[in-house]
Amino acid sequence: SEMCIRDRVSTQSTGPFCGDGIIDNGEQCDDGARNSDTTPNACRRSCTLPRRGDGIVDDLYGERCDSTQLNDFSGACSTTNVPNACRTFRAPANRLVDLSRAFDKSSPVFTYDGSSTAPPCSEGWKWFVFQKIQTLDEVQYERLSAYFPVGNARGPQPLNGRSFSYTATEPAVCGDGLAEKTEECDEGELNSNTPDSCRKNCRRPACGDGILDAGELCDDGAKNSASGPCGINCKWAGFEGCAPGNKTCTAPGATTINVIFANLLSGSKCTGNCPAA
Fold first, then answer.
1. Computed over its alpha carbons, how large is the radius of gyration of the chain?
2. DSSP labels for 111-149?
């Protein structure tokens, strides 16, 4: 039997290859004869998936345009493969751009005299280096890299007698839209002492701040107490199951306890569903 099987093995067999309809190691896709370098959304003939900048509008991948390597923010198609349409609108003449909001003012800054990082490395440049590292997204990185296709970084250079200064951190400003230092949040003009908002003091919503947020049944601020009516966990004191505004809770065994009983002892007037005297 073994000889029969061996004799029937074709001498024409080949190893895995791109275009055989089977996704092998190193291939992103393989649709066999349907692989195409011109058909939208198709697996490419190199057995790779459609990508930005290949000159084919692949709508199933979110592309609305594709001008190959010409995709940028100065042409018809952007680097995100959607048409550049913003140039057809005009911003109000009185609109100002505050570039200070683009930097983290809580970061200390090193300042020194240096030179350009690209040939001819001209001197006369003043460098401001933030100690706190900034971040950028993929689109911003691609756009920045397009301006420096061969790179513009230099290795560490000797001081050559130059000195540098160190500027300490500026105080955080609540309401500037930047969460800095001890600020828990900062949504700028959206800061509000309303439910589920970053507070005007740049604090996150919290039990005990006197504002009823999601997940809280009550919040009397500093008056929250283990003895009620609003507990220190922003739920009606006594037992679980109380609805907002209902100050009576049903304990196991169908016992009804009024959570403002302590107030009754002090002479407070009971309104609504009051226990019998």
1. 34
2. EEEEE-SSTT--EEEEEEEESSPP---HHHHHHHHHH-T
Strand partners, 129: 110
CB-based burial label for 185 (10 Å; 0-12, 13-18, 19+): middle
pLDDT digits (tens, 9 = 90+) for 148-202: 777 777 778 888 888 888 887 767 789 888 787 788 998 888 999 999 999 999 9
Q: Which residue has the higher pLDDT, 271 or 186?
A: 186
Integer Cα distance of 249 and 260 in angstroms: 11
Whether residue 158 is preceded by a cis peptide bond, meaning omega within 30 degrees of 0, is: no
Residue 242 is predicted with a pLDDT of 52
pTM for the model stands at 0.34
**What whole-number distance in Å separates Cα of residue 40 and Cα of residue 50?**
8
Sign of CA dihedral 224, 226, 231, 232: positive
225-230, long-range: CB < 8 A, 24+ apart: 227/262, 228/259, 228/260, 228/262, 229/259, 229/260, 229/263
Which of 172, 181, 211, 178 is CA-nearest to residue 193? Answer: 211
Q: Is the distance from CB of 254 to CB of 248 less than 8 angstroms?
A: no
Encoded tokens for 77: 């198609």
Tokens of 41: 């959304």
